[in-house]
Here is the input.
Amino acid sequence: MGFTLTPFSVQSHKVKPSSTLEPAGAGNKCVMLKQGYIELLTPISTTPIANQLRSGIERYIGIHLLAIGTSKPLEDHARLVKENFTPLEPVSLQRKIKTETTEETAHFKVIRVPQGTMAEGRIQFCHHLTPNFLWQNRWTQHANHAIAISDIIFCVEDPQEAAERYARYTGLPSISRKNSIRITTNRGSLIFVTASTCSNKLGINPPTLPWIAGYIIKTGDQSATLNYLKNSGIPYQSLKNKRLLVSLPQTLGGHIIFEGVNSEVIDF
Here is the structure.
């Protein structure tokens, strides 16, 4: 599909600040965009994190995790306590990562809630402490011209309930539109729609509910993205305003909508 992938990396974590470092039970490759990233995550052990991943995959193949960027994880943790989400203790994650000249250690602080609190998947806050190790220039150049994740699409039974819950979770207001409810962040939005809206507007049907249906990616050159998909034989569907919908293979699951960097807010 024209994405540059990082090398496979095994994750380690401290489940409590006083804990010793131990394997998290998962590893990843990433698509590092100039803004945001896609994480391809796999269980490699029998830890709680690995088993949570397997539980998600048993529900459906596709997207199961949303990491919301933050620079103030402890404030997010305090808000989640206040809003009765019962957050877990902040987790320190790390993994080895190679630069062009040496090997370094990338560090993250993650705020999570107990499994099942957010029915849509693992929804967490992530503070990148060493972003320069991850956003290396060699990994942010993509043949399909992708530059940023813009929006996440949640297909749910009750968009109003879900949006209100995420508004409390993020501390951001929700806004109702014609066929969707959304929460706008500094970099994009969380979009909540019904199964019928997914079917009528995008021609896709959920395998189950709730379902993280896909995400919208901004491209630096939408015409070049279209040409790349055509030349690579990637099936796509044309939407309004030159948007391109790609349904990922069944073994990967989910959907990507490519749109130009100056596209108006998608209207369902």
